[in-house]
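Reminder to self: keep the SMILES exactly as supplied, no canonicalising. Ligand is flavin mononucleotide.
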Amino acid sequence: MNHPDTAFESDPKHLHLAFDLSFTHTEGRWARPGSWAGRTFPDVRMFQELAITAERGGIDMLFFGDGTGLPDTWRGSTDAAVEWGVQWPRHDMSPFIAAMSAVTEHIGFGLTYSSTFMHPFYVARLLNSLDHVTGGRIAFNVVASTRVSDAANYGYDRLPEHGQRYERMDEFIDVCQRLWDSVEPDAIVMDRETGRFADPAKVHAIDHHGAFFDVKGPLTSVPSPQGHPVLVQAGNSPRGIATSAKFADLIFGFGGNLASQTRHRSMLDAELAANGRDPADVGILWATQLVIGRTAEEAAARKNEMLAYWGDEAVGAYLSYNSGYDFSTVGSTVNLGDLNETIVATGASPSGLVGQLVTELGADHDMSRAEFFERGWKHAVGFDTTMSGTAEQLADQLEENFAATGSRGGYMIGNPLSMPSSYVDIIELLVPELRRRGTMGEAYPGRTLRENLAS
Ligand SMILES: Cc1cc2nc3c(=O)[nH]c(=O)nc-3n(C[C@H](O)[C@H](O)[C@H](O)COP(=O)(O)O)c2cc1C
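Structure tokens returned for the bound complex:
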């Protein structure tokens, strides 16, 4: 295995793989060749079978991102998102995780909740119970949330300001951690002779009074196998990275661009050191899309399936939601510079599709509406950042990027062409290659998810 070529000096760790199951049925995937026929989301048995298969492949974790609103930016309506299944439907995955854990023994599960909308007492208690049910295999992905449609379901007209959302996250996690510590591990006595259940000296109120929450504590449940679930954070801004460095055990980062990944890694390392933490302990799983084939030609042909066009309504709903700008308003000819200025003026994200087109083609460039949407589709499916090839070719690339980003963490493989076949291919073709090379270590060397991720 290659050694890290960053300034960071430490024993390289094994490469870890997780499957991001956030979008396995949406954006038309449910209808693609290789997807389950005769079964539809959210059939829990689909998830149980995938969990069994993924555990056979030694995958570290099945991960579920979340959002609680419907895409509603395109035409100011949710209709297109509903009609074409754009990032909708999405369930609360906690009961699904419980069901998956009942048919597996080792694989971990990542569950997402927003610290902007949820309450830490509820989340800390739920995660504690899930850690019990899974036998120490739960991770909590805490997000600050970015979408007004999510906020609208929790009584907000608008999202709280960015810095304030991270202040709330800091306090939210602090409360969770104190609640998880509020009952000491040996508090439960259960002495059958005396009938004494627990030692009150080992169960503590937390008496928290902060800017956002007042929580008396203690937690009403008993300590779980991991004590604290593995904490995952996905904020990408300098503020998000600073917050993640305070508590995250693992980071979920944007993949696909090595320059921004190495920047993220070095910013995180500096923040971890500033918090007195060892940068060796915190890996980043890079969001990655893979298309694998038995030959390079087969992989390239499969990758081209991503370009099967979805239609303006669906593409528009996707792009508009993800950039915060309603692209139904574009005319028959699009001037890139003008459109970019309009987007920036509305406060929407300038770094998405249009920003990239301006960089690529120049602000003076005009294109037809049809071309704009076709390019938008390619952007939406992540065509240019999807790696394709044989198991050997992909293993080479993954190893190289892993080494270049500090050899800590690995990859969160998401947005499969179809579920389950894309993941089955990864388990059957790619994982054996990475294990043969020693890049991935022994499957599940520890007892808990935290121990398994530490190798
Ligand atoms: C790789 C990645 C995955 C994310 N997944 C989710 C998610 O599932 N749900 C969500 O509400 N936000 C998600 N986010 C958004 C972040 O949690 C965060 O709110 C957003 O990036 C804005 O914060 P920032 O400005 O610090 O990046 C994700 C972000 C990244 C980088």
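Points to follow up:
Residues 16-294+390-453 form a domain with the TIM Barrel fold (CATH 3.20.20.30).
Residues 396 and 434 are 9 Å apart (CA to CA).
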